[in-house]
Amino acid sequence: MPQTESHPHPGSVPEAAIPGPAGLPVLGSMFDLRRDSLGTFLNARRAHGDVVRLEAGPPGLRSVFHAVFAPEGVQQILASQAANFRKDHPLYEEVRQSFGNGLLTSQDADYLRQRRLVQPLFTKRRVDSYAAAVTAEAGALADRWRTAAGSTVDLVPEMNRLALRTVARILFGLDAAAAEDAFHRCAPVINAYVVRRAYVPVKIPREWPTPGNLRARAATDELNALCDRVIEDRRTARGTAGATADEGDDLLSLLAAAGNDEDGSLDATEVREQVLIFLLAGHETTATSLAFTLHLLARHPEEQARVREEVDRVLGEDTPTAADLDRLPYLTQALKESMRLYPAAPVVSRRAVAATEIGGYRIPAGADVVVAPWVTHRSPELWEDPERFDPRRFAPEREAERHRYAWFPFGGGPRACIGQHFSMLESVLALATLLRAYELDAVDQEVPVAAGITLQATGPARVRLRPRHGAAG
């Protein structure tokens, strides 16, 4: 564990004086956080400022944590003092136990070793080579939409399916269908189990044969078996064909090849853990961005028309490629604005190693700390009329004027999302493909959400489809 010399300023306010909601006399803010954690954080910021102390749970089992909302404080936690804020929060431990110790959850030497091996797989050149898979899956979805009942679709499951099929195709190659079926069946079970365990004051041991434990174990075993089977198939094929054979350019083949290097840095279990984490983080986050971008454009027809004009003008009838990413700036701005309003990771947790000062307050050693894109992205000091959808906020000159951590949907610092370029590429090309094929009219005007491992829509985001010229071929 890294030791960080980070001492509070002599003039900092002690922890006990940090403001925060009183909550109920015995349980504090426990029920508020369970019912609506995102709303609770927003209200806490409005009432108490940019550093807030919250308590939840009965005496003896009470959780105390500190929420930091100002971009300067976010920068301290994620970037400038990142070594002092570790992924030791209970949520990460539960994700680690269910999905393995991949890049999302690993730390210290394990993280550095994994990142070094995986980084070449996410270079711009490598990611750009995935563009054809993205547009093929988006085009297939546009074709399927022609038979939608009543010409109406719910964007939440549709974008989940699209993002999962895309990531599974890239990760698993020809095994995309099997991965899709297994993940749709198993991931919701594991996600709900992880979040529930992370926030209960007393945890039942995972080994006990309770119904919940047994369901989660069966789902985890199924995903592990799927990954192990495909990894073994890849390695067998490489061994049969010889080390120089090109047995596939999908990410799983590349990870398996990394595991065969002389340093043996990734064994079969570690390859599987990376794949599971990429499936979890890589499909749910991008699906959220896609669904809410399309829904916001459906609710704002004038912005949809402006995006579509750009897509038509730049692409014509051509299939979009990675080279078109920079030629679709307004579509990219609309995507970034939807990620401001609906960040896929709405709350990010850390634990302080040493005491330090943030925003004039003393944060003690061992304290649980959260930063919340959901709240910072809605700060009226940073964003004029923050609830309004306005892609013009992300024009280059306006982005240059803002603090780096006024907008951080991909995190930041040394633990910034390794798949950022892939997510942006996938999102822009998929959006361009779908918006060229259809005009969208919103059926549901508002979509309720809640914070899980990622942002979860708790209601439908339905749109009515109107095919355009040459839609879906």
Automatic annotation (TrEMBL):
Cofactors (names): heme
Keywords from the UniProt entry: Heme, Iron, Metal-binding, Monooxygenase, Oxidoreductase
CDD domains: CYP132-like
Leader sequence residues: none
Binding annotation for heme: C417
GO molecular function terms attached to this record: heme binding; iron ion binding; monooxygenase activity; oxidoreductase activity, acting on paired donors, with incorporation or reduction of molecular oxygen
InterPro entries named in the record: Cyt_P450 (IPR001128), Cyt_P450_CS (IPR017972), Cyt_P450_E_grp-I (IPR002401), Cyt_P450_sf (IPR036396), Cytochrome_P450_Monoox (IPR050196)
Recorded family membership: Belongs to the cytochrome P450 family.
Record PANTHER family: BIFUNCTIONAL ALBAFLAVENONE MONOOXYGENASE_TERPENE SYNTHASE, CYTOCHROME P450 FAMILY 4
Protein name: Cytochrome P450
Biological classification of the source: Bacteria, Bacillati, Actinomycetota, Actinomycetes, Kitasatosporales
